[in-house]
Design goal:
The protein is of the alpha/beta class. Among the domains are: 227 residues, Rossmann fold (3-Layer(aba) Sandwich); 151 residues, 2-Layer Sandwich (Transcription Regulator spoIIAA). It is 34% helix and 14% strand. It has 20 helices and 19 strands. Strand 7 and strand 8 form a beta hairpin. Helix 5 crosses helix 17 and helix 10 packs parallel to helix 11. The longest helix is centred in the C-terminal third of the chain and has 21 residues. It starts with 7 loop residues before the first helix and ends in a 28-residue tail after the last helix.
Length: 621
């Protein structure tokens, strides 16, 4: 019988002990002695967040399809258990076997958000390993990462042996085959394995590359240390979305997850070209799953999980070619089984009254739109592709469909933003609220209209046209939020309006991590030593400790964010070939400054470079 890694006494001391016991429905148990490779797939955040991550589920399914691999799940222990594990020298363990991951072959993390960087060190530390990759020996697991944050891996490069660039379904088999072959032949050494792995497409081995810096702190060069190591690492892309692993039997969490539902990924990529959006660039080109495949997935996943909700996952679900047919199928299925359908943030211009009314028949909730900017000028700067009429007509359709609660997402601090652009945010919210009262007769209203406006503060991410843009100090972000908030109080329908904004100090730190180089790693390590982890959680974020870490390391965070980058500057991430060319991104940066709109991929190819993959929208338009 499987023995739990934590005693009953410890489990009774900590919050939500079910996070740590494993044995959930659909979890995969194998005989450790019958596999050649053990992989700990880690999400550097709490169980409820990690169990909602689709990438974890996909890789868990993919790896465990191999008879010679056993993949187990690991999540960051909550601070209460972290304290106990440190005090009692308990090593971090896999949920399935309850055995220490220090004895596994690989520890892999998916990096979805920069503010989880100290949790990387928490996992490595609790696993009983040196924090720095350079200090690890042959008898220790290979520590690797992937995910969207890997598109600038440099701030965390010192902690990882391998960083995977691209979509995980493509190169892992080659990596595992190489490792197993070397182990079986007796020729394995950490150094030799990493050297050979570096030539596998999408595999970046940080220790095999050296940065050099100019006197002003900018990069002079970034080169491999051996001639046979590629000078660039190419992003990996799934060509056929129907020919991939997918979690048909998703693990059902013991503790209610943030996304406690079946997730149906209908496509990857996006045609829109929003200039702030990293995902819209790094997941190009847009590729769809077939309607038949999605119908089969939905039926099987609902049957195998018992979930009462299904969500469509993509960057812009409105652009899925067969959305009406898919919704017709799901509504019929879900109505019969009393399952709710959750639609993600949708584009207002494509959102039809017909679709809304069909989903309404199953169950109603608030509806979310993302105009991103209040003024038309600002929407043109970011290439959102939404007109004022699109927003108003889409909102009217939503109200006619029975909704009276609307959530609107915006950004503050975008390039070229003026006070007029800021004030346009509550003005647009007020206009939408007024539209509700003008459109819906009083006798038909289901209570007061509620328009909730949320603003995040803009972070210029790598591989976007805005990667050259600057950021601002936290006081300036808060000043801009105050302009919006004060102006909202002057609106005619202010009782129908709500406004909330993101933490400014967290945004500044996120920007440093997103745009930093290897010199940031020492700051992250120092912050962890000072007690920083779970920085994405407001109650645990400690700005004073981060300020101390920067001071202790002699690193000026402002260098990375408070300046507009020269067009010829070498970026820390330029060694990655994302297949979206720097020339295209620079052209879009110029278009942004001129508030010039670029057509979406369906309307005409803009020559971004993604056509090299010969798949998806690039082959049909």
């Amino acid at each position: 019988m499987r023995k739990l890694a934590l005693s009953d006494d410890i489990l009774m001391q900590v919050e939500k002990p079910a996070r740590y016991i494993g044995n959930e429905v659909n979890s995969i148990i194998k005989d450790a002695d019958s596999v050649a490779l053990r992989y700990a797939i880690c999400f550097p955040d709490v169980y409820e967040i990690g169990m909602s991550n689709l990438a974890i589920q996909i890789l868990y399914e993919q790896f465990n399809r191999r008879d010679d691999v056993w993949c187990e799940r690991v999540f960051s222990p909550w601070p209460d258990l972290h304290k106990v594990m440190k005090e009692k020298s308990i090593l971090l363990f896999g949920l399935e076997s309850q055995e220490a991951i220090r004895d596994f072959d690989f520890i892999g993390m998916t990096m979805q958000y920069e503010m989880c960087y100290t949790n990387i060190l928490q996992i490595i530390d609790l696993a009983g390993l040196p924090l720095l990759a350079a200090d690890r020996t042959d008898d220790m697991p290979i520590v690797m990462s992937g995910g969207p944050c890997s598109y600038n891996p440099e701030p965390i490069a010192d902690f990882f042996d391998i960083i995977y660039i691209g979509e995980g379904e493509t190169s892992y088999d080659a990596l595992f085959d190489l490792y197993i072959k070397m182990k079986k032949s007796g020729s394995y050494s950490r150094k030799e394995f990493l050297h050979k792995a570096s030539v596998i497409p999408g595999i970046y081995v940080p220790t095999l590359y050296e940065p050099e810096y100019n006197a002003d702190g900018t990069l002079t060069s970034f080169k491999p240390v051996y001639d046979d190591v590629p000078s660039t690492v190419e992003r990996q892309v799934v060509v056929d979305m129907d020919d991939t692993a997918y979690p048909m039997k998703p693990v059902v969490p013991h503790v209610q997850a943030i996304q406690d539902r079946v997730t149906l990924e209908i496509m990857r990529g996006c045609i829109r070209g929003c200039r702030f959006c990293q995902a819209g660039m790094i997941y190009r080109p847009k590729r769809e799953r077939s309607l038949e495949t999605l119908e089969n997935y939905a039926v099987e996943m609902l049957k195998n999980s018992g979930h009462e909700e299904i969500s469509l996952s993509s960057l812009s679900s409105s652009d899925y070619s067969h959305l009406p047919e898919l919704l017709d199928f799901l509504i019929e299925q879900c109505d019969r089984d009393k399952v709710n359908i959750s639609l993600p943030s949708l584009r207002i211009d494509n959102f039809s009254l017909d679709v809304m009314s069909k989903v309404q028949d199953v169950r109603k909730s608030s509806i979310t739109f993302a105009p991103e900017a209040g003024s038309q000028r600002m929407r043109d700067v970011i290439n959102k592709g939404l007109s004022h009429d699109d927003i108003i007509n889409g909102s009217r359709d939503a109200f006619l469909g029975g909704w009276n609660k609307v959530k609107l997402y915006f950004m503050l601090g975008l390039p070229t933003e003026t006070e007029e652009d800021m004030r346009a945010i509550p003005e647009l919210g007020d206009e939408i609220a007024m539209l509700y009262y003008d459109t819906i007769p009083k006798v038909q209203r289901q209570g007061r209209c509620q328009v909730t406006m949320s603003t995040s503060f803009f972070v210029p991410k790598p591989f976007t046209p805005f990667q050259w843009a600057r950021m601002y100090e936290k006081e300036e972000y808060l000043h801009r939020a105050k302009i919006v908030n004060d102006h909202m109080k002057e609106m005619l329908n202010k009782k129908s309006l709500r406004y909330q904004w993101h933490q400014a100090d967290v945004t500044v730190l996120e920007g440093i991590f997103a745009r930093g180089d290897r010199r940031i790693a020492q700051v992250i390590m120092r912050a962890y030593e000072l007690g920083c982890f779970f920085d994405a959680w407001g109650e645990y974020f400690d700005l004073a400790k981060w300020e101390q870490a920067f001071a202790d390391c002699g690193v000026d965070g402002d260098f990375y964010i408070m300046r507009e980058r020269p067009e010829d500057e070498l970026f820390p991430w330029d060694f990655i070939d994302c297949k979206v060319s720097k020339k295209f991104l620079l052209r879009e940066w110029h278009n942004a400054k001129a508030a010039k709109v670029t057509k979406n991929c369906k309307e005409g190819c803009a020559g971004c470079g993604a056509a090299v993959f010969k798949t998806g929208v690039c082959t049909t338009h």
